[in-house]
C-alpha cells in the first residue's frame, strides 16, 4: 500500500506543479485553491508512504515522478522543448526510479 500512496503523492505533485503555472502568481482563486489542495494531499500521501518506505527512496521516487510528469505535461500542454537530450534525461530519471524500487 505504501507504493500506492507514493504514486498518488507523485501524481498530486505533478498537479500542484502544473497548478502553480495556472494560478498566474496566485491571482486566480480557483486555480490557487486547487493547487494548494494538491500540495496538501501530496504531502499527506508522501507522509503515509514514509511510514513503510526508506526516506531516501520515497523522496527520490516522489520527486522523480514529479519531475518526469511535470516535464511531459509542459511538453504536451505548454509547448516546452522536447529535445533528444531532454527526453534522454527523462529516461535516466525513470531508470533511477525503477532502480530505487528494485532495492527498496
UniProtKB/TrEMBL annotation:
The way it spans or sits in the membrane comes to: Multi-pass membrane protein
Return the protein name. Guanidinium exporter
Superkingdom to which the source organism belongs: Bacteria
The record's Gene Ontology cellular component field reads: plasma membrane
Main localization of the protein?
A: membrane
Family annotation (Pfam families): Multi_Drug_Res (PF00893)
Sequence similarity: Belongs to the drug/metabolite transporter (DMT) superfamily. Small multidrug resistance (SMR) (TC 2.A.7.1) family. Gdx/SugE subfamily.
InterPro entries per record: EmrE-like, Small_drug/metabolite_transptr, Small_multidrug_res
| Localization, UniProt | Cell membrane
| An annotated Gene Ontology molecular function | transmembrane transporter activity
Please name the PANTHER family in this protein's record: GUANIDINIUM EXPORTER, SMR FAMILY PROTON-DEPENDENT DRUG EFFLUX TRANSPORTER SUGE
Query: Where is the chain membrane-spanning?
Result: 33-50, 57-78, 84-103
